[in-house]
């Protein structure tokens, strides 16, 4: 028999946050969720790089974001720009960090072009969620040099060349505007 005030796991892992609390267990659950969140950040490879627990080759760091070399680069010069405060997905990102990420990515892109590395263009890429190919659940922008014949590419779906009817675009836009609150 479960005692009142104890949190009980009812489904999934801590990361999924599925917890059932007794009516007296709300405070226990909040404290537990806080510690679970701290444990997740402690396991985040990017947080561990920023804290110095793991090696990382930094090229930039300020109060809100950092940039370091990707250990699996698309091309030499592949840099990751991340917020210094943990945010698993874009919706979790605080406004101060959000406003700093892109200007840092722009500076890194300019540095890639000026560095002497082979760089005919630059891609800036953000994957938000597993379906979008996010592998490390700490928001990050990939900034990497591109050149003709480098072998990297995005593949479009089978219907990409067939533009949707304007009515469909309008219907989708209506749904997005509603979700934006305006």
Describe the structure.
With 182 residues, this protein is an alpha+beta fold. The protein has helices at 26-43, 45-51, 95-114, 166-180; strands at residues 7-9, 19-21, 58-61, 65-69, 79-83, 121-126, 141-146. The protein folds into 2 domains: 7-43; 45-146, 2-Layer Sandwich (HIT family, subunit A). The chain has 4 helices and 7 strands. A 5-stranded antiparallel sheet has the order 3-4-5-7-6, covered by helices on one side. Strands 1-2 form a two-stranded antiparallel sheet.
Task: Characterize the biggest β-sheet.
Answer: 5 strands, antiparallel
Radius of gyration: 21 Å
Can you say what the CATH homologous superfamily of the largest domain is?
HIT-like
Mind telling me the CATH class of the largest domain? Alpha Beta
Low-confidence stretches: 1-39
Give me the CATH architecture of the largest domain, please: 2-Layer Sandwich
The share of residues in extended strands comes to 15-25%
Order of helices and strands: EEHHEEEHEEH
Strand order of the largest sheet: 3-4-5-7-6
Report the total helices.
Answer: 4
**What oligomerization state is this entry in?**
single chain
Cα distance spanning the termini: 50 Å
* Outline: globular
Helix content: 25-40%
Mean pLDDT across the residues is 83
* Tally of separate domains: 2
What's the total count of β strands?
A: 7
SS class: alpha+beta
CATH third-level topology of the largest domain: HIT family, subunit A
């Amino acid at each position: 028999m479960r005692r009142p005030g104890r949190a009980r796991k009812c489904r999934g892992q801590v990361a999924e946050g599925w917890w059932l609390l007794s009516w007296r267990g709300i405070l226990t659950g909040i404290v537990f969720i806080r510690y679970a969140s701290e444990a997740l950040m402690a396991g985040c490879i990017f947080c561990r790089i920023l804290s110095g627990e793991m090696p990382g080759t930094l090229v930039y760091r300020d109060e809100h974001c950092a940039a370091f070399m990707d250990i699996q680069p698309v091309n030499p010069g592949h840099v990751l720009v991340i917020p210094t405060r943990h945010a698993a997905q874009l919706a979790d990102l605080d406004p101060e960090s959000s406003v700093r990420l892109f200007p840092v990515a722009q500076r890194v892109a300019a540095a890639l072009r000026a560095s002497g590395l082979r760089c005919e263009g630059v891609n800036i890429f953000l994957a938000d969620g597993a379906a979008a190919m996010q592998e490390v659940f700490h928001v990050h922008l990939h900034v990497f040099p591109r050149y003709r014949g480098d072998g990297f590419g995005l593949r479009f779906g089978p219907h990409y060349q067939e533009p949707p009817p304007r009515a469909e675009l309008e219907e989708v836009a209506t749904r997005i505007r509603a979700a934006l609150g305006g």
